[in-house]
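Reopening this one. Same input as before:
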Amino acid sequence: MTTRKFNAAVVVRTYEDKEGNQKKVYHEIGAVLENEEGHLDLNLEVLPLPNPQGQVWIKLFPVKEKEE
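Same output, byte for byte:
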């Protein structure tokens, strides 16, 4: 059985809030899963586009446990 450990996301845009702080908007593109052997697998549902420098940066956010 695999367990979802992280959500994978990329920044799609930045904006400035009412107080003038820079904020980022993320789009989830996949997940990191842990398999039975303890190995981590990256499952991408979409392929992100590179930035002007040709780089792709994927942010990993821990999965939040569901509250009952």
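So the earlier flakiness isn't reproducible anymore. For the record, The beta strands are 3-16, 22-34, 40-44, 59-62.
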